[in-house]
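Researcher: Next sequence.
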Amino acid sequence: MFLGGFATFAMLYGTQPMLPLLAAVFGVSPAHASLSVSAGTAALALSLIPASVLSDRYGREKVMKGSLALAALIALASAAVSDFNQLLVLRALLGMALAGLPAAAMAYLGEEVAPNAQGRAMGIYIAGNAFGGMSGRFLAALLTEWGSWRIALVMLGVLGGIAAVVFWHGLPASRHFRPRPATPLRIARDAADIFRDAGLPWLFLTAFLIMGAFVGLYNYLGFRLHDAPFHLGQTAIGAVFLLYLIGTWASAWVGRLADRFGRRNVLWMMVCLMAGGLALTASGQLAVIILGVAVFTFGFFASHTTASGWVGRRAQERRALAAALYLCSYYLGGSVIGTLAGFAWSSARWAGVALLLGLGTALTFAIALRLRRLTPVAAVSPSPAPGSGAS
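Model: Next structure:
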């Protein structure tokens, strides 16, 4: 699962460090260039619910394996585009193909991992996401500067293909999966139950806001560091994404912390770290900016690990659909706020971006405080499904 998450996010976010170059090559604005990221994340978001329905019907393994293999082929094809619109179409198709893995991953871990280890398992999976996002961005930046953006996209496709082969042969078989009928009535009933839950809709909104802040920060950080007074090159900007290593560690560590102390006691503190890191990026000193991005990155991955694990625990037998709704909100947040941050950048540079993201982070903190008062799921349901528990 670590490897599957690695490949998914390496391919999905590979164009992020090359946004200034794509804007120059294709003659588009920064906000328009950011659509090479947002098109993929938006398509992924809108495909998550259909993919979760397929995983309920045909099994987690089949959907995840097919997702990775198809995405690798599309990633390779994207290197041959002749204009920006073609690139956007293929990036959207890539997002649709990739949706199968995250849509089924949370449900797979919830079914196959013991309850007292689910936080750690989710942390390791999300650590793979972080490591893949970092590696894809850094590799793309390096190859773009040494060769071209087309070579970078080819190598991302090759990386995805290798990961797909290893994932296909190495993923343990599902032992606890039980098919559920993919009827509109059943889906509508499950969705209604999910949105009646006192905590799940707030966790979906949390996902929207934290991912929006994360994508917004990293999308326009490259533009800021490329401009005066820093004038950093592609490789130097790509090296900033090595901070994802902090997210990799944070995900695994906070997963254990949540298992021990409870998600309600961890989430609000991690959101505070996001806010503190964002505040540091307002500095004019490069070292302080990098420190701020590091703190923000730690807080983001810690918050995501905590919130996503909480969804799986509360949703019980509806965890596949709940995970899809969570991730749909998550990626839509990245697409919507990530693009809005482009207009903030055009209007007021980094001050505008930081203000927009700060407002979203403040709202997330208020939600986290509300979730602290949430009634544990064990108290809501006297006969919880296997693998559920107080959270």
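Model: Residues 379-391 have pLDDT under 50 and may be disordered. Residues 2-171+187-375 form a domain with the Growth Hormone; Chain: A; fold (CATH 1.20.1250.20).
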